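Listing S7. Sequence submitted for prediction.
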Amino acid sequence: MFIKGKRVVRDKKIEVINPYNDQIVETLGRSENADVKEALAIAQKGFDILRKMPAGERSRILEKTAQIIISRRDDFSRAIALESGKTINEARSEADRAANTMKLSAIAALKLTGETVRFDLGGQSKKLGFFMRVPLGIVLAITPFNFPLNLSCHKIGPAIAAGNAVIHKPATKTPISGVMLAEALVEAGLPVEGISVLTGPGSTIGMTLIKDPLVKKISFTGSLEVGETITANCGMKRVTMELGSNSAVIACKDAPLEILAKKVRKGGYTLAGQVCISIQRVYVEDTVADDLLGMLTDEVKHIKYGDQLLEHTEMGPMIDNAALEKAELFCEDAVKKGGKVIVGGKREGSIFTPTIIYNVPEDALVIQEEAFAPIVAVNAFNGIDDAIQKVNNTKYGLQAGVFTRDITKALQCAREIDAGGVLINEIPTYRVDNMPYGGTKGSGIGREGPDFAIREMTEEKLVILDQI
């Protein structure tokens, strides 16, 4: 917990556990209802300060925060790896991305402008009008375990850039890097009232924050089920919901199969598949299905998994036992319905082995739901219309990948796949931090990426002047 620029100790503790070996990484104070009330009062004061702060100053704070993250890359990386279970190399990449997200937020602070409004469209008018974008107030940032630093930056950076104050509620399993980020922001010059971090269960302190009228905006990344609970309880608040997915890849017969197999090796098993845009479904044209399955199997068999702190490890543990049990359930369901496990499909301690399941019925859990596990289902299709129909036949729509050299098929997929992003000759796991990122259907509401998030953390205020 982090309030008024300092870590706060409480009698009740949160033990942060290394998911690989169940050892305690660090102990933090657990927030209580009194802390929620204090954080809200502090944030209201912070908003009064930040909305009056020049945009250039907010930008400088964010830029300096990025520099601090870079200077402490090793510390941030180790914290991310230990608390989330991602490999040390994945954690280093996240730290680099987080610094870049803060730099992009610094730029967004300087670019935030309004527009003029014409009043002479229906005839002569002496009125002059414009709108300016103004901050909302207190932004509640609720972040998940899988990208505990960068996804925090995606919410906190644009919020501060716009002149809002922030209360950050990180995932209870991964609060360390969120507190470290708040410390970096204050060290960079952010007023202590501008950022608080509350640690504890979402069902208690999270719900209290969600319902409080002082909170004007909620930016949440997590599951569809929790997102629905938030929107059902938050009242008249702005919301950005970055929710789940079961991202698909279409591989046409003219696709570069060897390249695709290597990309799926990365996109389906990074962070043990615990990524919203992790590849969960591969639809390959029937005439080349066996070829791709063989290449992909060879790639997946060679994934090195184990202790996330070792340099050679490609895939670390799952976050907890519940995630492992869910992965087992999805595999058992797929096999029961007729799918064939080609490789993996079992637990080894805290690891769920990299898994491929072939010929899975479309009503199976691994096709319809979000596995959030290192499981990739491979199915054949006959014709591009069949592939598009299968990709769309779920409640999710975050990102999808299409591999083909046929521009007509590529454009048809871009038009007809119902997702927030359609990537041609790239896997759906691809993301850079300046792009508009978000989904359709059950995958969310709104877009992230600092240039886009800052719009959703401000509102237009209209000004009209008349000559009298």
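Caption to Listing S7: primary sequence and predicted structure tokens for the chain studied. The longest helix spans residues 88-111. The chain has 15 helices and 24 strands.
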